[in-house]
Amino acid sequence: MLRFWKAGFVLLGFAVLLLGGVQRANAGCELVKATNSAESKAAAAKAAYATAVQTANQIKRRRGWSYVNLRPRKVKPDPFWKSVRPVVTPDMLLKPDVVTSKTYSQCWKGVVVPYVCTAGAMACGR
């Protein structure tokens, strides 16, 4: 009987550790959305990528993480001047999307600037 209780206690301990680890992993992530513009689609995508990385590093410092990892995440395009262009419709998007190991960027032709891109990523760390 004592052996049964020990085995049950060990299994309960593993379950608590496993569920606690899953909960911490989800709590240690934040969505990053960065919009930038440039004279070309490639330059705008590169600038949005750099802004996303910079934002992730700010999140890392704010949360006191020792590291941060970025995973690409498709997000809704976010125009700068919402009074000029409140939304970006799917037909405005320039194909192909620019996807790297860290960000997922969608670009369109701007009204005030030549090209605009929004990069999305999930920043996770501890």
Task: Briefly summarize what is shown.
With 126 residues, the protein is of the alpha+beta class.
Keyphrases for this structure?
five-stranded antiparallel β-sheet, alpha+beta, 126 residues
In percent terms, what proportion of residues is strand? 25-35%
Mean pLDDT: 86
Principal-axis shape equals elongated
**Structural category:** alpha+beta
Residue stretches low in confidence (pLDDT < 50, at least 5 long) are: 7-26
Main sheet record: 5 strands, antiparallel
Helix content: 25-40%
- How many DSSP-defined strands? 5
Number of helices: 2
Structure, described:
By secondary structure, the protein is of the alpha+beta class. The protein has one domain (29-125). The chain is 39% helix and 31% strand. It has helices spanning 2-27, 41-63, and strands spanning 29-38, 68-72, 93-99, 104-109, 115-125. Strands 1, 2, 3, 4 and 5 form a 5-stranded antiparallel β-sheet that branches. A hairpin with a 5-residue loop joins strand 4 and strand 5 (115-125). The longest helix has 26 residues, at 2-27.
